[in-house]
Amino acid sequence: MELLPKKSDILFCARYAFKPNQLQYCGPDKNKELFDYIKSAAADGGLGEIIKKFETLYPYLKLIADSNKISDPFSKKVAEAYWIGNELLENVRPTRLYWHLMDSLGLGKKLPAKEARLVRAKIPRGANAHHSFHVFNIWQRTGHVENPHTLHTMDECRIGWGQVQAVNTKKIRVLYEPLIYNNHHMELGKFAIKDIAVDIDTGQLNPGDWISFHWSSYCGGLSPVQLKNLIYWTSLNLKLANQL
Predict the structure, then answer these.
(1) Helix 31-40 / helix 45-52 crossing angle, nearest 10 deg
(2) Which of 49, 64, 155, 201 could cysteine-pair with 179, CB 3.0–4.6 Å?
(3) Taking Cα atoms as reference points, which of 134, 151, 139 lies closest to residue 83?
(4) Each residue's pLDDT tens digit, 102-124
């Protein structure tokens, strides 16, 4: 019998998956159910079945879990590795990542030949199973909307971080570093104000706190370690993206 994930573990993953699903970019047509699970802070096997239908997310969770001999792909540590980044990513072998990208996700067929070659070339240079690697280095969006990424969609699709300036029931105003294009390279620009939508419960937030967001929608608070990891893996994958 398959073990059900811990409630808190799978809800952590669901909070990051919620907004792109609401925008119909990826995952099944189950956003109301997804929202109800998150709002009630209750989970069962049904939430697991919804997450399994995310055609890019779930294979990454499986890859990270299998590479670390973790039986539950919904483990918070696994989901954190994918969305934010942690030490589990270091155990995903380059050859395993290659077959994941080319076969499990079918990028060998979905991408134009030149782009597929560029992705393959980055495997030995430090390619990894973090969400930002997929966003920055696979320019063809691979969910329901298979269009090329733009600078704007990459900035929205990556997991962003920001320091809270003000909070109300509808939005959180943060300082964040936007993705910019400078001298033929993508990089993070100077701090700017951004409004983050409050689609799900934020709990207690105060000015000075750091939060994560996805498609300009609040995901969760960030501990100092999580913030450091998210900056590290995002910066690493930006460098890879600039290697053409």
Answers:
(1) 140
(2) 155
(3) 134
(4) 998 988 888 888 888 888 999 99
**Backbone φ, ψ for residue 14 (5° rounding):** -65, -35
Q: Distance between CA atoms of 154 and 135, rounded to whole angstroms? A: 6
Instruction: Give SS3 for 201.
Output: coil
Under 8 Å between Cβ of 171 and 202: no
Helix axes 7-22, 57-67, angle to 10 degrees: 150
CB 214 within 8 A of CB 11: no
* Both structure tokens of 142: 């691979």
DSSP 101-151: IIIIS-HHHHS-HHHHHHHHHTGGGT--SSHHHHHHH--B--SS---B--H
Q: What residue ranges define each of the domains in the chain, with the CATH number in brackets?
A: 7-137 (no CATH), 151-222 (2.30.30)
Residues in Cβ contact with 203 at an 8 Å cutoff, skipping those fewer than 6 apart: 221
pLDDT in tens, the chain (244 residues): 344 455 678 999 999 999 999 999 999 999 999 999 999 998 888 999 999 999 999 999 999 999 999 999 999 999 999 999 999 999 999 999 999 999 989 888 888 888 888 889 999 999 999 999 999 998 654 444 445 678 999 999 999 999 999 999 899 999 999 999 999 899 999 999 999 999 999 989 999 999 999 999 999 999 999 999 999 999 999 999 998 7
R_g over Cα of the chain: 17
